[in-house]
Design a protein that fits this description.
85% helix; elongated
Length: 53
């Protein structure tokens, strides 16, 4: 999923790199959407697990 996001936002990544952004900051920026989805799904999974227990 992160690779797909990077391919879609290739122009944005190129501009950020040209302006001097570090690789770490670019990776963090692209990964935040994926991390949010993982955290939300973890929260709902944990909640459902506690209710169905």
């Amino acid at each position: 999923m992160t690779t797909y996001t990077a391919e879609v936002k290739a122009k944005e990544v190129a501009i950020r790199k040209t302006l001097g952004a570090s690789v770490g900051s670019i990776v963090l920026k692209l990964s935040m959407e994926f991390i949010k989805l993982v955290v939300i799904s973890h929260y709902f999974g944990y909640s459902c697990g506690m209710v169905c227990k």
